[in-house]
């Protein structure tokens, strides 16, 4: 996601690992390149596969910058708010089968607007003054 909206998503059964995350990143890099955007800052949490040498080197090879959030700081990651809204929308669909679930995930993605994403970024930014000053963050 960016502050302008969702960039891409991929529905996958099962857990992610470095290999499938790298595949996903390459898809995102194609989108970024098609939009003629350069030097993107990729903000990621501390999932171990985000920090593998292969992932870091690939990000840098495309002239982008990996940024890792401090541990236990989901309030600094706007995508956590996006996921929260998305899960709520999917829950409302009341899917009963895997196919219905995948369909509702896909359909619900269109209900996350650029205004939502901008709001998620603004919410994150509201924590920055306290973080910069080293104050405790009340989430």
From TrEMBL:
Residues 2-101 form the Tc1-like transposase DDE domain. One of its GO terms (molecular function) is nucleic acid binding. It holds the Pfam family DDE_3. It comes from the Eukaryota. InterPro entries: RNaseH_sf (IPR036397), Tc1-like_DDE_dom (IPR038717). This is Tc1-like transposase DDE domain-containing protein.
């Amino acid at each position: 996601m960016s502050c302008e909206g969702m960039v891409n998503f991929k529905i996958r059964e099962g857990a992610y690992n470095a290999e499938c995350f790298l595949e996903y990143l390459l898809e995102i890099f194609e989108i970024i390149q098609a939009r003629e955007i350069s030097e993107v800052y990729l903000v990621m949490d501390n999932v171990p596969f985000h920090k593998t040498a292969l992932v870091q080197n690939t990000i840098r090879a495309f002239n982008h910058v990996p940024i890792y959030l401090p541990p236990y700081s989901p309030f600094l990651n706007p995508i956590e708010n996006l996921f929260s809204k998305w899960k709520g929308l999917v829950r409302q669909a009341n899917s009963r089968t895997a196919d219905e679930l995948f369909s509702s995930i896909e359909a619900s993605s269109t209900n996350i607007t650029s205004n939502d994403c901008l709001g998620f970024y603004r919410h994150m930014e509201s924590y920055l003054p306290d973080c910069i000053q080293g104050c405790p963050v009340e989430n």
